Amino acid sequence: MPVRQYKYISSLHSQLSINLAIAASFSITFAHHIVSIPIYPYLANDYPAVLSLLTHHMWIGGILSIGAGAHASIASIRDPIIFDARVNSIQTHRDIILGHLIWLSISLGLHAFSLYIHNDTLQAFGRPEDIFADNSIQLKPVFATLVQTSALVSFDIKILDLKVIRITQELGTADFLVHHIHAFTIHLTVLVLLKGILYARNSSLVADKEELGFRYPCDGPGRGGSCQISPWDHIYLAVFWMVNSISVVLFHFFWKMQSDVWGAYNISSHLIQHISSSDFSIHSTTIRYSILWQIIFWLWLNLHWFSFYLGIQLNVFIQRSWLLARID
User: Fold this and answer.
1) First to last CA, the chain
2) Which of 38, 53, 116, 284 could cross-link 44 (Cys pair, CB 3.0–4.6 Å)?
3) The domain that contains 293 carries what CATH number?
4) pLDDT-based confidence at residue 81 (cuts at 50, 70, 90)
5) At what angle are helices 309-325 and 47-78 packed, to 10 degrees?
């Protein structure tokens, strides 16, 4: 049986792109595991340290992912890449790949936000029994619950210095809603990055992208409107959606943990007093009637021009919320 040989890709940008993507995956995976599977008890006991570690590694993972997409686009244009059969197959099917990502992103965004709009509307009409919530119409995350209750990841409650360090989270309708928001923002970020990579050399609108380079100004109506088509423009837009993705993840994590996980153990009553006592499952199913969701969306809506300071604003907001709700 002949052995299939792959030619070595002599592109520094492509190698850098691959390594950035791997490092980003490791960073995000570590951020998840250090919280979900805490192996250092005294670290898990320090809630601000856990929050800082997750915030730090999530932002690193997001920035490295953008770097991976940027250098993949540069490699596609500038470097003498030897494309093998796999890369050529992806380039040949780029319209199908992007088409599927487009309809998937539209479907996720439409249905996820429509559920929140439904809840806000019926709440405004005074019909709380008809909204999607644990006490009315339930939408349970079935598959996530099956994984969470399996023998591999489920564990008993562990307490250190009268503070909860490990507990199985109860997933409900609120988690179902926000998980689909996560899916929408992540898929849309991947869509923008892939579009910038796969159409970096040419497209049906501009066939000479390879000669124009990585970044070039649009010529307005010259070709029917050519703005937002250069690889650099795609990176710019991907950064915006990456910030949206990471921001929702961090805010969801902080609110969920202080509502259902973090808390103090009362020796006399043998009960766990969470910081906000299941506030997430009760109030996060609506946007209009949830002051915390309103604040984070207010930050986005008032961002007329994209700025890196959005991340700083969100981190400061999380820290201020922590100081208000912290227990000693």
Assistant:
1) 67
2) 38
3) 1.20.1130.10
4) low
5) 170
